[in-house]
Design goal:
Layout: H1 2-8, E1 21-25, H2 31-40, E2 44-48, H3 51-55, E3 59-62, H4 67-76, H5 80-88, E4 93-96, H6 98-103, E5 104-108, E6 120-125, E7 135-140, E8 150-155, E9 159-163, E10 168-172, E11 178-183, E12 186-189, H7 200-217
Glutamine binds at residues 64-67, 97-98, 101, 126-127, 155-157.
Length: 218
């Protein structure tokens, strides 16, 4: 609860941290958990609900939640097009679960009319683990993030059914189904590192944000 209150108070320009300025899309879902993690890692965090708030950040996290609702709200608030433009412009974006669905070029089992922002050359299937087994935990090997396996929590998560030529799989379940992908400055996981205390994905994402900020200054 304390964590939630703390991150909620992080309005635009509210944090004194010297780290990169990272936004968390706060239309719906577990944005507070991401804001808390990023703040702990030294980022200057603000919640993004409007296009002008998006303009101010050097990277963006799209949280877990419900992708169909996030999609609808992003269009209602006039954020979908600015988000797509920012992605095309190379803004580092990390999507977890519903956030990964938002970043996928193709979404299977979407609700009628549901759109994604796109950017990641992947096909994802929503709710891929079915109603009997909507949540589970497992340890994943993620060679790009070190030797130590990562404990991963899946909550009605999507699976990456196919990875196009432009994207790279970073992690798969024991049966081979891909659950983490990367493409340039875009990163997506089917699971939720923001709730497990395992911050290697957030660190990896912040590395992309710092690299982009540094190259913009040169
Ligand atoms: N934990 C989550 O983000 C679940 C994702 C949700 N099932 C969706 O389709 O958006």
């Amino acid at each position: 609860m304390t964590a939630n209150l703390r991150s909620e108070s992080l309005g635009v320009g509210d944090s004194a941290a010297a780290g990169p300025h990272v936004g968390v899309l706060a239309l719906q879902g577990d944005f507070r958990e991401h804001a808390h993690v990023l703040t702990r890692l030294g980022a200057h965090v603000s919640l993004v609900r409007r296009p002008e708030e998006l303009d101010a950040v050097d990277g963006l996290v799209i949280p877990g939640g419900e992708s169909s609702v996030m999609d609808k709200l992003s269009r209602t608030f006039g954020l979908a097009e600015p988000l797509q433009a920012a992605i095309a412009d190379g803004l580092p974006v990390y999507g977890t679960c519903a956030g990964l669905i938002m970043l996928a070029d193709t979404v299977l089992d979407a609700i009628a009319g549901q759109q994604s922002l796109g950017g990641l050359d992947v096909v994802v299937r929503r709710n891929a683990f079915g109603s009997q087994n909507q949540s589970f935990e497992t340890d994943l090997d993620i060679p790009a993030l070190g030797e130590e396996p990562m404990h991963a929590v899946f909550i009605r998560g999507p699976v990456v059914e196919s990875v196009g030529a432009a994207a790279t799989p970073l992690a798969a379940l024991a049966d081979g189904r891909v659950v983490a992908v990367e493409q340039g400055n875009l990163l997506g996981t089917s699971f939720h590192p923001e709730i497990t205390g395992e911050y290697r994905f957030h660190e990896y994402f912040l590395g992309k944000v710092r690299a982009r900020t540094a190259s913009a200054v040169e």
